[in-house]
Amino acid sequence: MAQPLVKKDDDRDEEADYSPFLGIEKGAVLQEARVFNDPQLDARRCSQVITKLLYLLNQGDSFTKVEATEVFFAVTKLFQSKDNGLRRMVYLIIKDLSPSADEVIIVTSSLMKDMNSRTDMYRANAIRVLCRITDGTLLTQIERYLKQAIVDKNPVVASAALVSGIHLLQTTPEIVKRWSNEVQEAVQSRAALVQFHALALLHQIRQNDRLAVSKLVTSLTKGAVRSPLAQCLLIRYTSQVIRETGVNSQTGDRPFYDYLESCLRHKAEMVIFEAAKAITELSNVTTRELTPAITVLQLLLSSSKPVLRFAAVRTLNKVAMTHPMAVTNCNIDMESLISDQNRSIATLAITTLLKTGNESSVDRLMKQITNFMSDIADEFKIVVVEAIRSLCLKFPLKYRSLMNFLSNILREEGGFEYKKAIVDSVVLLIRDIPDAKESGLLHLCEFIEDCEFTYLSTQILHFLGNEGPKTSDPSKYIRYIYNRVILENATVRASAVSTLAKFGALVDSLKPRIFILLRRCLFDNDDEVRDRATLYLNSLGDGSVAETDKDVKEFLFGSLDIPLTNMETTLRNYAQNPTEEPFDINSVPREVKSLPLVEKKAPGKKPTPLGPPPPAPTSASDAYERLLSSIPEFANFGKLFKSSVPVELTEAETEYAVNVVKHIFDHYVVFQYNCTNTIPEQLLENVTVIVDASEAEEFSEVGVKPLKSLPYDTPAQTFVAFERPEGTPAVGKFSNTLRFTVKEVDTSTGEAEDDGVEDEYQLEDFEVVAADYILKVGVSNFRNAWESMDPDTERIDEYGLGPRESLVEAVNAVISLLGLQPCEGTETVPNNSRSHACLLSGVYIGNAKVLVRLSFGMDSSKEVAMKLAVRSDDVNVSEAIHEIVASG
Amino acid sequence: MATFLSHETCPTIKNILLLDSEGKRVAVKYYSDEWPTNSAKLAFEKSIFTKTHKTNARTEAEITMVENNIIIYKFVQDLHFFVTGGDDENELILATVLQGFFDAVTLLLRNNVDQREALENLDMILLCLDEIVDGGIILETDGSIIAGKVATHSVDDGAPLSEQTISQALATAREHLTRSLLK
After folding, report:
1. Residues of B in contact with A270 (CB under 8 A)
2. β-strands B25-30, A656-665: how paired?
3. What is the number of structural domains in chain B?
4. A43, A92, A156 member nearest B127 (Cβ)
5. Model's pTM, two decimal places?
6. pLDDT tens digits, residue range A278-314?
């Protein structure tokens, strides 16, 4: 009207971008829906209105409760029409409106009528609609029809009933399970998709019955399955059966492997691929089993269809993680995929090649990757960087070209995650490849000159402080570090000050110059920076060229071997109870409570803004320590070294539940028996545990603390204390009997009778083992910790562990025998590997630090051999560790 | 272990999308509650559209991964077809579903596969989606069967497509020929 110009534009838009729904508006369409109520129904017009309503729903418009109900009731009127097309649209909109239970009743009878109609399409659709909107109560009414429909001659009707069954199994399993005879019949159907749907439903009905699933697979793998989709299902079920049955130990054959292998020759690509994938995912798959699958996947690599290439390269990529050698045959095909139009395929190809490549191909690969890096997204780049990192560790001699590559991509644009992946990789290379150190450090220095991420700058500065002073020319790094003090934010400045101080402490010749720089920092406008500078100036001496005190070095470089969460808890307690005494760091418990986060880098001197410490876990050992020190008999036993986890001494659900916690002191052992009385009609009094230590010669009993009374369902403790030779890891077996006086209790009044009867109750035995004398204490950097220990304390020996099921089992057995803390995630053994190295650390009784390196190897007959290297503060301790393994 | 469990069950389709050349919806159907709200759905559509629209998926279906989902897609004229499945799903099964959807739409729109035609026959597209997948479970993957089921019910055409009369078939063929000559 008043906007002729705009109007003109609209016209032109309409021309180019015409849509029948242009300017559609919900209110108007709802008005239009009144035609549903006309006595003379215009089927075509009604269909159009429904399409409009569906369009609105599809575009994300939502109807209010009232609107939806109104539309729904209007729609139900349309069942009067005999028009096929309109009926289909009615079905569709009923499903989309998802009516509430009381509304469903309105359409139930119409739908049930359609379910018995002679038109197949009506039957099929009415079943699907009704099963979608119905609840359990209605289902019993229509169950009979559904069972009929499952075996209907028309495949569409049968499929509709079967698929509805699959959905209903989630909500009303008890009803659907009654249909298994019909479903079984449908599995034999000649219609491909009916067979597929029937198989899916039958398996879901029986999935908790292993034997039934196994039978199903056995009968079907003999070849009655027609549709490729059903064949894929069968392959999945077969691998499940294989996984649950395991390898036949006599012949070494895997049941059903032949079936999977035969599927590799199926005519449908979908089935071939499913079978190949299933074979690669078999647990402990052998090279012989893998080969046919790899061959098939290799063929798919050169397919013209991107989907096939992607599927094949993704599967091979996964295989390369565990069986790199099996994939090398495909390397030539892989290399041609690097230039694939589809970047996902190219990235997968590259990372696979990096996993399988040999030393001579590294240079060529790096050249190809460099061209490729500029046009992929960050997420792909991270994958590539991680693959390069592991390649570098595999071929240390090639560090030069890999380091070059990393430094190049470090200079390019990229987000935080990507840069962090690169920096982590460079740090790892520097740490593991000594030759790469100097160039790597310089690359990092250049990076922090122009780094927008505070977190990365502080990490690098910290790392530089540890590694820089040990290089041939430490002075060349100072410039980069001091630039940070001038140019960066407070957090980075503070890190830079610490780094400068480390150079000053280790490189005596630089000390006077460092002092000048540090003094300048005294005028910084940030507290933390000034405080650090002051602290370091005071601790580093007088600024002359002189060797730094050992204590100061220890202070600067010693890693905090106390878990930070424990430190935080203790400090908080200290701050809450004001006292004159200075805080003693030795009062912080060293035991790791929760699963420790073994960080790649040593913990920074302050919590970084990106990683707030997790909430302090409630510490069990604190509670034990408080409990024990409150008992006067045990008060003079000294400091508690370790408390074990509770060991159950009774079966579950017996009259009395008892478990024991072993508390180890330097000179004593205290057993804490936690008892619970589960009989409401009884009250126990004077409860003690009679301990027979005849199989534990080095222990002598020194005291018992009985429990006065043990009412129903109230846990309480009784204690027994033993003395043992100081500092030794004495072991032994203890048998226990619970002795008490029983009094009957009248449950209605809760009063106990006066007279009791003496009784005994046999408990199970338990042992004190070597691991009880070892505290789990992690170290943040195992390599540094190992090197800082005196090599003279090292003891190495080899052991045969006999035949084992898998390496995982052997590794776990040794770890639990020693009771040490696995470091740097080395307790996890990759699937199917034949050798493994594991790093452990801990504290032995008498406060001796222990570090252990384990190397495991497994031969073809599953015999496991282990090399054990120990370093510790005390040679005797190293020998004691070997003693534990030798006797364990 | 969770991935193993999902792997043992039936192949599952998370959604089927038909978007226009600007990434706007023509017709979409979600079978998974991974995207509970309309805005989550729109965000997902936007992310896959921006990730794929520059690629060439006109002759063969292409594939990519977004948010741990596999997406198979194909473009024709100004229409973009997508099928999404979990990251452990058999890629080829998903591709078969996409092909079935695509073939059925091509048949139903009598080879005029573009946005305008699709919107004008939106009822058929929606019925088509309904016949391919039911609650995430594949119902049918053969394009001509799907189109047949939909066409039986279309208002203006009583006969299934497979039973076209000779004159209809000729008309279609003529249409084909003219179009190829005009190109």
Report:
1. 90, 92-93, 96
2. unpaired
3. 1
4. A92
5. 0.63
6. 999 988 888 888 999 999 999 999 999 999 999 999 9
